[in-house]
Design goal:
Blueprint (H helix, E strand, L loop, with lengths): L12 H17 L1 H25 L5 H15 L1 H11 L6 H9 L3 H28 L10 H5 L2 H25 L2 H6 L5 H14 L1 H20 L4 H19 L16
Helix pairs in contact: 1-12, 2-12, 3-6, 3-8, 3-11, 4-5, 6-8, 8-10, 10-11, 11-12
């Protein structure tokens, strides 16, 4: 197997602002396809929030919204493809975002399985915590329960946030840079994951600020779904732009076997 190891460039807080700027410009260059792809997740989110509200467990909307951040690195692969085509001067279509999954390397699916596994752990733990803190009280989906600030609700949000932040940081460290590295076939699975973790730890402050910014914007947008049509594309393209800053394209891109042993 080709051992292609890339040394990441040092990131700064200014790179976050630049990445968001690039994300915004990319969105304005591709508004229709960007919003159409985001609409898929918005519709799924609307269905999920509706079911949660009908079941009377609306505070669980928070952990489900947080769980999106565990699956996000994989789901955003479509935006990475749209962004890469835009870089090449092409005019991507909606089908290109979905085709990105069909042509993805095997290593990307392994990362996807890890994200899905952690998502199931997170939702299961959130359900158990909910039963102990809030119990069988019926709470339909609305923002009323957010303003009540009952002790039970605050306990659920506090402990849930602590559990979720640990899982979110783990998957962020593993997938933040590994997903685009694997997708662009610049590294195999093992090298990409280890490089992503090293890059996140080596740029700890910048990556923490970026992770908090990204998760805060997406969480708010999921709770107010129309915002997702705009914020999801912008933040996704910004993620891709930040990856480009860490691993510029002057490095060679070489296909590798993602599942072969080193």
């Amino acid at each position: 197997m080709t051992d292609l190891r890339l040394a990441s460039a040092r990131l700064s807080l200014g790179d976050i602002a630049d990445a968001i700027r690039v994300g915004r410009l990319t969105f304005f260059a591709l508004p229709a396809v960007s919003m159409a792809y985001a609409a898929v997740f918005a519709v799924l989110g609307l269905i999920l929030l509706t079911v949660i509200g009908l079941l009377g467990v609306s505070p669980l909307a928070l952990p489900f919204a947080g769980g999106f951040m565990l699956l996000g690195p994989i789901l955003l692969t479509g935006y990475f493809e749209l962004g890469a085509q835009h870089e090449r001067g092409a005019k991507p279509q909606l089908r290109d975002a979905f085709d990105a999954f069909a042509t993805a390397p095997p290593g990307l699916w392994l990362v996807a399985m890890l994200c899905a596994f952690l998502f199931l752990i997170w939702i299961t733990d959130a359900g158990v915590l909910y039963s102990f803190t809030i119990g069988g009280e019926h709470l339909g989906y609305s923002f009323a329960w957010l303003s009540e600030r009952s002790d039970k609700l605050l306990a659920f949000v506090l402990w849930g946030s602590l559990m979720g932040s640990a899982l979110a940081y783990l998957i962020f460290a593993v997938s933040a840079f590994s997903v685009p590295l694997i997708y662009e076939r610049r590294m195999g699975l093992v090298q990409a994951v280890s490089t992503s973790v090293v890059t996140v730890l080596g740029n700890f402050v910048v990556c923490i600020v970026w992770g908090i910014t990204l998760s805060s914007v997406i969480l708010l947008s999921i709770l107010v779904l129309p915002l997702l049509l705009i914020t999801l594309p912008i933040m996704s393209y910004a993620s891709f732009a930040l990856y480009r800053k860490a691993f510029p394209l002057e490095h060679p891109i070489s296909p590798v076997d993602d599942v072969a042993p080193e």
